[in-house]
Amino acid sequence: MKNSQLYKGSLTTIVMKLLEENGRMYGYEITQKVKEITKGELKITEGALYPALHKLEAEGVLEVEIENVDNRLRKYYKLTEKGTSETVNRLAELEEFIKNMQSIVNPKLT
Amino acid sequence: MKNSQLYKGSLTTIVMKLLEENGRMYGYEITQKVKEITKGELKITEGALYPALHKLEAEGVLEVEIENVDNRLRKYYKLTEKGTSETVNRLAELEEFIKNMQSIVNPKLT
DNA sequence: ATTTTATACATAGAAGTCTTATGTATATAA
DNA sequence: TTATATACATAAGACTTCTATGTATAAAAT
């Protein structure tokens, strides 16, 4: 992703949130969406994304639908039932993480 | 640290911010401080902290003062000049990271 | 006509961070 | 006397991500 180690560990949470939001997406679409949302500040690399998608699929968090569009392969991913409930937990953890980091960075506000 | 991968990559930023705030601290003190600030939610493990401190020292970000207190060794760390300016960058990156993550999690607000 | 860019997938090797487990040592509380 | 708190440290393994590389089609630019 971008500079800074901070994004490490947030990839699966990002993917799961986007799929919750958009129903189903394919890999390349996810990279473009993240670039767009963050105004180019965060770029997800393919070397990180594809193995992550495969792992989430193997864990039963995502399921895949393969389609052929314009003579090109597309693998659409969507959350399974398990994945949907997992996403709730992930987002709660993310909120808690952000809250904790803000407590550290800005101790006066807490 | 705690559950969730999210904290990966945030350790050095946390350490640098705490040292900026408190002047100088020793390892054990840092672990306790973080536990206190986050109300026990974030626990920094020694296996992560000590190697991180050594690395930051090797990079010239931190410098160490060894003292003997109550027959126990203490290694106080503080930011070097380089470390102080590095901390400014790290905190800016953290703010940007949080902003980006919030854009992803809550696209309606942006 | 040919090269570059965009789309779309994939993996292998290396780098880097963190966890778990373990080790040393002193002081205090149970 | 045993457990807990204080205080340091490292080694092995797990895990994630990056860089580099590979395949393939289509469109745009030179």
From TrEMBL, chains A, B:
InterPro entries: Metal_resp_DNA-bind_regulator (IPR052509), Tscrpt_reg_PadR_N (IPR005149), WH-like_DNA-bd_sf (IPR036388), WH_DNA-bd_sf (IPR036390). Residues 15-86 form the Transcription regulator PadR N-terminal domain. Pfam families: PadR (PF03551). This is Helix-turn-helix transcriptional regulator. The lineage of its organism: Bacteria, Pseudomonadati, Bacteroidota, Flavobacteriia, Flavobacteriales.
